[in-house]
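Dissemination and training. As part of the outreach component of the grant, students in the summer workshop were shown how a complex can be specified as a set of sequence lines and then modelled as a single object. The example used during the hands-on session is reproduced here so that future cohorts can follow it. Participants entered these lines:
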Amino acid sequence: MGFFQAYKMAIKSIMTNKGRSFLTMLGVIIGVASVISAVAFAQGSTKNITDSIQKLGTNLIQITLTGRNSNRDMSYEDLKKFAAENTDVIGAVAPQSSTNARVKYGNTNMNTTIIATSPEYESIRNVHVTQGRFLLDFDLEYRQNVALVGTAVVNELFEKVNPIGEKIKINGQIFKIVGILEERANGATRSDDDQIIIPITSSRMVMGTSSIRNFAVEATSAEKVKPAMERLETFLLDIYKNENAFRVFDQSQMLETLDNVTGSMMIVLGGIAAISLIVGGIGIMNIMLVSVTERTKEIGIRKAIGAKRKHILTQFIIEATVVTGMGGIIGILLGFSIIKFVIGGLGLVPPVYSIPWAMIAFGISLLVGIIFGLFPAYKAASLKPIEALRTE
Amino acid sequence: MIEIHNMYKTYQINQIEIHALQGINLSIRKNEFVAIVGPSGSGKSTLMNMLGCLDAPTSGTYILDNMDVSSLTDDEMAEIRSKKIGFIFQSFNLIQKLTALENVELPLIYAGVKSSERLKRAKLALEKVGLGERLHHKPNELSGGQQQRVAIARALINNPPIIFADEPTGNLDTKSGVEVLNLLKELHKSGNTIVLITHDNDIANQANRIIRINDGKIVEDRQVI
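and obtained this result:
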């Protein structure tokens, strides 16, 4: 008896009991569809974050000061001086202090992120100005209260008014708007469009402190990121004498962290998927056992006319795998529809259709069929022909 | 063809031993038409199960076609059933969800015959029993007589040397019963060995030899002239 023949027999049995077969499949369908769509969601969010990290530029190094030195902290001036001594690896540096602040224009209010920095920020962080200008050295030198606003801020505060030249209050301080930042919205993060950028030298009253804890450093090229980081670490260690007082990191470390997060997310998803597929498998075993009992007579007839154990065994296992395999395919299609219409429809993350995962899910559903079909099939194959024939 | 020596079969049901066969000695030659007769509970069905390799005896030997089949494994018995034996049952025992053609094809599938030849042979067998027009009907779309003819076609499909018919007319009206018996007679004429199991003396008288069985023992063995 060939595989094709057994397959035809299985299809026939499944078709005579369409409703029941479908209900049996349902466990696998739901299991597979949830795996596929959950994985897609995970991959979509990862892709989103990865994309936005890469958009920041591959040459970017960030410094965060976490500890303090009783004598002196590393200041913006220290860093600038260090950069000037290391022009072979470091292109530019910019401070980046940020805080949340209340912003007021006329009678309209909003809470948003304020970033205090220097003109170098424009090239280091790859921001663009669509109207007006970015910060100038002049603004810093003379402590100008000027600001650049993101498109979200424009939409929120300025109705039908060109913001350029308008004055806003940030934590009570008056700032004049000199430029509008290009829209960066990418769906995932709350985007950078609700930012307001001001000169670092005018930020003391807004930030409530003059110490700067975060800096952006641009390496001269992607290859120089490593040596630049090493020199920065030596430099900082020299000041703080403590490795835990600062953190120097680049995009690759952020991507690595992201990979770890994605990895654990996948393990959790995998666990949930495994449980749902086991539940589906138990459903299949249950129905197969009922089916064996119901078809005792049929098995008896088949044996009486020459079917061997292996024939009956293959028939039932193939029947189980056809059920789970069909469930797997329907589950994949359902999963892809969820990706397209639900994930794509919500627009939170970009839809990702993973063919390898679809194949893995299909393979697992076949495996579930074999594993959970084995016991009922073995039971059927072991029936004695005369006893099976005697039942009605 | 069939040689049985001192065959015993004992069943154990709820700690009570039932001696279904008690020392059967029997020999059936090739191309005989034998009727095994007895009331219900006489052991005739047990005897057929033994002869048809559906069950193994408790003791005794059974030589079928020069081969000792008294103590075979399940699969070896299946092999014998597939190659040497055709069954016709009182309740037809067709698989309800398969068409007449597919039912007849089934023994060939298990015998490993390839698809194109299976189809040809199954069609031929159904034509032989007069059901050439009913190939794609399912059992519940056929009359009892027609169903039994499908079962006969299925029993014949592998050209087995022996055919066992267990009360083949038991569920049929008189006319269909006569048709089925005539088919069996034709098969006998064309060289098959036929073993007919019945409780009906009139039907038994159609055979060439009658073996009467009672309480698990043969009580009469005579030729019909």
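The mean pLDDT of chain A is 86. Students were then asked to discuss how this feature might be tested experimentally.
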